[in-house]
Write a structure and sequence with these properties.
The protein has about 120 residues and is mainly alpha-helical. The protein has one domain: 434 Repressor (Amino-terminal Domain), CATH 1.10.260. It contains five helices and two strands. It has a two-stranded antiparallel ribbon. Helix 3 packs across helix 5. The chain is extended.
């Protein structure tokens, strides 16, 4: 089935989502929630991708990390709004044979620099 696509003039049907998000990010409350969700999504994606690359099931990872399988399922399915603790993340990544590095970047001011900490 052939689909017909047309080029739409910019602004004719509203703003691109990236511009809408950029505008909303100016609001501190929205920005906090957006960044929190972004971190949670990234952690879940890294754990799931790493687990799958090792050919492991959630149950196998849970046994190696000594955590309930339900916690891994909840993390990967994004069913929990909480950001997992560093201890939990370290357990999972260490059980997968990896390591965790934490990078902290202060605001861009003269004399400040990013710091990295190896956690596992």
């Amino acid at each position: 089935m052939k689909k017909n696509y047309r080029v739409v003039e910019r602004g004719k049907y509203g703003q691109p989502i990236s511009e809408v998000i950029r505008e909303h990010l100016r609001d501190p409350e929205y920005r906090r929630g957006f960044l929190r969700d972004y971190v949670r999504l990234e952690i879940a994606a890294v754990v799931k991708d790493f687990r799958l690359s090792k050919g492991m099931t959630q149950k196998q990872l849970a046994a190696r990390a000594r955590v309930p399988q339900s916690q891994i399922a909840r993390l990967e399915s994004l069913a929990d709004d909480r950001i997992p603790s560093l201890d939990f993340i370290i357990k999972l990544i260490a059980a997968l044979g990896g390591s965790v590095d934490l990078v902290m970047r202060p605001s861009a001011r003269p004399g400040r620099r990013a710091r990295e900490i190896a956690l596992a």
